[in-house]
Amino acid sequence: MNIxxxxxxxxxxxxxxxGMAWYFFKTMMKSDEGTPRMRxxxxxxRKGAMAYLKQxxxxxxxxxxxxxxxxxxxxxxxxxxxPWVPFxxxxxxxxxxxxxxxxMKTATYASARTANAARKSxxxxxxxxxxxxxxxxxxxxxxxxxxxACWFYALSLVYDGDKMALITITTTMLTFGMxxxxxxxxxxxxxxxxxxxxxxxxxxxGKVEADIPEDDPRNPATIADNVGDNVGDVAGMGADLYESxxxxxxxxxxxxxxxxxxxxxxxxxxxxxxPMLIAAVGVFLSLFGIFLxxxxxxATMKDLLRSLSLGTNVSAVLIAIATFGILYFLGIxxxxxxxxxxxxxxxxxxxxxxxxxxxxxxxxxxxxxISEAGxxxxxTVIIKGIGTGMISTCIPVITIxxxxxxxxxxxxxxxxxxxxxSLSHGLYGIGIAAVGMLSTxxxxxxxxxxxxxxxxxGGNAEMCQLGEEVRHRTDALDALGNTTAATGKGFAIGSAxxxxxxxxxxxxxxxxxxxxxxxxxxxxxxxxxxxxxxxTIPDFMNYxxxxxxxxxxxxxxxxxxxxxxxxxxxxxxxxGRAAEKMVQxxxxxxxxxxxxxxxxxxxxxxxxxxxxxxxxxxxxxxPSVLAIIIPILVGIILGVAGVLGxxxxxxxxxxxxxxxxxxxxxxxxxxxxxxxxxxxxGKGSFAHKACIVGDTVGDPFKxxxxxxxxxxxxxxxxxxxVHCLHVNPYETIKQQGSENxxxxxxxFF
Length: 749
Known about the structure:
Blueprint: H1 9-30, H2 36-77, H3 85-118, H4 122-158, H5 165-209, H6 222-259, H7 265-290, H8 301-330, H9 335-360, H10 365-373, H11 378-391, H12 394-411, H13 420-438, H14 441-463, H15 468-517, E1 521-523, E2 529-531, H16 537-543, H17 551-592, H18 605-619, H19 621-676, H20 686-722, H21 729-736
Antiparallel strand pairs: 1-2
Helix pairs in contact: 1-4, 1-7, 2-3, 2-6, 2-18, 3-4, 3-5, 3-6, 3-14, 4-5, 4-6, 4-7, 4-14, 5-6, 5-17, 5-18, 5-19, 5-20, 6-7, 6-13, 6-14, 6-15, 6-18, 6-20, 7-8, 7-14, 8-9, 9-12, 9-13, 9-15, 10-11, 10-19, 11-19, 11-20, 12-13, 13-15, 14-15, 15-19, 15-20, 17-18, ...
């Protein structure tokens, strides 16, 4: 296989990204960490975060060993799985874990340095926090592209000369997406439970009952709360978006191999590497945007938002322009239409980000109205927040719908015939739109990872009593971080929707390969018996009766929608159980340790860290394993039609629910921040206490259940792809009238 020389831009971009991440990390480490007390607090947080991550990786390692053994048995014992699958699965999980680890390590070193820089200027604090967040963004894209480039090159050598080489390579590479998804879900769920158990405990007992400020050193749960910001919002988000990033590139490559298979090997190969090249160019343009972010002293919230928006928007505009050049240079059929598909994805990302900012920032009316509702009590705050969250789903859902249609139509020349070529090219357009949305992840993830760094900096400033002016600056950075975190979650959910839709088509391709290996035939839409290798997507849709009149599709869709709510319910209850233990422990310490509230006694911070750690390890297992088991069971019972219904129901229900939860939680959080800045009586007022209750309810919404949903919908797709051979064994045999009907598992072997 003659790989074009332009492909080497992909590994070069990955090395540049990792090199710049290292540069930003070393630059941050050269900054002064501040006073001895600031260093001490930062060390507490750093040790707690690393201790938690060590425990989490032990649990995840056990799960990976079990799954890898299963894949190995399927590959080498039953010979029903590609022999590279176990290794691809492991590397996906490993790199996903590394992305989260390096991001969290940077964040725990950056918080005190951000607080110390804020002692001098707001711009200094913003630069330290944002460029430290950029370490996470650049590490994710660097590791992702490195993993993709290495696997693609290695497999191209192995399958050189095989007529199905590119389809086999791209579908095999999807497996490391499952490894990344599995690790990401454990990181998100476990980190979310940890951080919100500590946060809820600290808020209820500290701010509401004891009437002490947020991040006050007298609060026993305050260190655990700051540790949680890192393990949940940094390590969890890093693993999450690593999985989204790789998933979008890999699924689009697989769709490109299928859509351009009849155009010849050269064009097919270019369609496969196109999403990799767009992502590679996005690395360089993200770096350009990162250096544009700066602000002035005394900046308002809108000024700070404008500073971050400048970097992200300039990067987005430049990658849109660059896409035209990349696809034209590759000489791909309908390069102009595909370029507009990419722009559809980019535009959708920007619109979702702006909509999220509008509904969650206290610079705008929706969040201000929630603050106002605090004057009549906690109940009205909760009601108003839920209503705002529900309304906020409209723009993202419509935006994703328009992006799907536009990317589909632009890619297939506005052909609505639903022919095989029209479908294949249209689905490739949807996949490449997801790549476009994530192409500047280096900077968009930097704005997200910035949030918990700024939050921890504010905590450090409060615990070290750095003074009103410094605390005012860190509060401004923290409030900005709440909005950027909410925007980042909306962006992650939006990209997950496009990626999951592309994975639906990849699932059909994997079924096709499985049937071809088994030597199966099927009846096409014209009623002719053909080999699986010659079948098109409409043929498979007809053969497996995938239509809305098939009850298996409907039942699968109901189960998919239910899975999103079941998953959220389980994670919300897990946070509730862990928070109860934390509340009881904080109350016990206030009651039994003399002098805590007077400032003469020392709280037992370690005990609260231990409670959150144990609770997260115990509670994260069942929800995470559920996401793996459900698609396998649906496939065994309802077959291919049921699985596709499951994935569609999970996508539609999960996406909408995730947007609602993330935006409602973000709005409640910033409604509280709005009052703390002086609105409606300020800190300690009746409205403030009511909004603290709203913020407490919103914590698991925005940081545990909501963000985990975008991983759930993609993981179910990945599991379905990897385990496509476990569909109902009677289904194919009965439709073919096979003489092996008495041996129902002959389809497997």
